[in-house]
Amino acid sequence: MTPVPRLRLYVDGHVDDDWFVHVGHVANRGRWQIAPHTHPEYGQLIFVREGRGVVELEGNRVPFVGPCAMLMPTDSVHGLDYEVDQDRWVVTIEVSYLAQITAKLQEFTQLWSGPRIIPLSYTPEVERESYQLIRRLEQEMLSSSVGRAAALEALLTMLLITLIRAMPNGQFEYEGASPNSVRQAERFRDLVNRHYGENLRLQEYASMMAVSVSQLRSVCTSALGQSPTKVIHSRIVTEAKRSLIFSDLPVEQIAFRLGFNDAAYFTRFFRREVGQTPSHFRTTAKT
Q1: In three state form, how does the secondary structure of 6-62 look?
Q2: Where in the chain is the domain with CATH 2.60.120.280?
Q3: Model confidence over 77-124: pLDDT tens digits?
Q4: Are 65 and 52 in contact (CB under 8 A)?
Q5: Which of 73, 188, 194, 245 is most exposed, with minimal Cβ within 10 Å?
């Protein structure tokens, strides 16, 4: 449905299908721009040691200054405008392997719940440790030593823990949720990502998860801090914004693709969730 380009990982000029973690180093002189895109097959951690620029996240332009870490989950729409000389490392993680890693710790799931920038200028010890871990990841990735896969997993786990510890207190509000609630909430979000355009009822989602609607509400509230209805609405709004910003499709056609039979009802829904009509949002976003 999305008009945004979907990219795959290219290594040495070709598509690499036999990988689960890749580390690359990029040093640019002057300005470098990457158009908005998404990559459903992997998540990325961009570690900027030097330089500054602007990242476009789902249509919003957010400045960044090195040193910092930028996390781009699978399917998040982002573009990058590196304004001055850059020294950055890019850790790319295959989607199923990323899911395996994030399932280990609730905070990992929350860390990758959306795109984010983690400033590191006030925590030089975290910057040094992150850089050392990334370099060790690169060395291990290029090796053929015994235990390579286990070593990569351990290093990646430690890198994510290091970044979580660098985040401000209170960044994750719902730390009291049980591991089972977190797993079920992630399962629900995965189902929403697959079916958000089908206008399914909560009962249908609950049935797919083999839980009751009340259990589904409890899981979402404890693990996500949102009702399941809000999770569904947020996903629909995200896709609507993408289509409004990155395509010239009429509002009526966007509404139909998102499961709305009535374009006027879609307009009321969008205005209630966003505070603007779809047409006004499109005009403002493209200005």
Answers
A1: ECCCEECCEECCCCCEEEEEEEECCCEEEEEEECCCEEEEEEEEECEEEEEECCEEE
A2: 10-166
A3: 888 888 877 789 999 999 888 888 887 887 888 888 888 999 998 888
A4: yes
A5: 194
* CATH 1.10.10.60 domain span(s) along the chain: 179-285
Domain 179-285 CATH assignment equals 3.20.190.10: no
The structure tokens listed for 73 are 């989950």
pTM reported for the whole predicted model: 0.75
Count other C-beta atoms under 10 Å from residue 18's C-beta: 5
Tell me the two tokens of residue 203: 């009962």
The domain 10-166: what is its CATH number? 2.60.120.280
pLDDT beyond 90 at 8: no
Q: How far apart are CA 70 and CA 90, in angstroms?
A: 9
Instruction: Give dist(CA 151, CA 40) in Å, integer.
Output: 25
Q: How far apart, in whole angstroms, are the C-alpha atoms of residue 253 and residue 250?
A: 5
CA 1 to CA 194: how far, in whole Å?
11
